[in-house]
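chain below, 102 aa
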Amino acid sequence: MNHAAIAAEALRYRLKLVRGPLVSIDEFDLEHMAGKTIAAAEPAVDGAIRRIATAWTRAGLSAAELCRPWEGPEAHALFSANPELIDALDDIMRVATRSQAA
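prediction:
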């Protein structure tokens, strides 16, 4: 699995959840942010990716789809049914924004 690609999709998905008039996904280079996030080697990010990937595959979703945009009813149902996965997304976002600011 490509952790940077998964982190990029996690960031994209989280931003879509909070998107509003003040937040535009187009303003961010998510792949660059994800790369910096993974390079930071934070255990919180590794754990978040592991929790998301485990829940993803247990839900019967293809592991290969983790590296593609998380769209469709199955992905949305996974995060709706598992609010702790939103916390995992927030762990990734927290490190991404800290890494971006550095």
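Helices lie at 3-18, 30-39, 43-58, 73-81, 83-101. The mean pLDDT is 90.
thats it, cya
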